[in-house]
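ugh ok fine here u go
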Amino acid sequence: MAYWLYKSEPSVWSWDDQVAAGEAGTSWNGVRNHVARKNLEAMRLGEQGFFYHSNEGKAVVGIVEVIRTYYPDHTDETGRFGMVDLKAVAALPRPVSLEAIKAEPALREMVLVNNSRLSVQPVTEAEWALVRRLGGL
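structure:
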């Protein structure tokens, strides 16, 4: 089982929007980075990830789950990129800020710390457990 982190600007798509999508979830589209595409392609049904508010807030705010694996992104006119579908699973009782993540020595190798521009990124099992604990889960 792999873990992931999905970044979204709250003014474009927020945690509240994801929660409002309900059990049907929503597509995670618009990714135009080849590394992020490979991450999307690697995802399996039922895998979970952190929902991260980027630019505004800069914090992990919730957990989402993959409910449909990689398929073509209808918003990509080139046909090179795809998407997955996600549903909200749980909000973090305490959002975990980027500042808090950077301050935690055990998270210094986290992709979020070292490649903050990557919109979809892997999270190790140890990082997953620690960020959940910092967030009150």
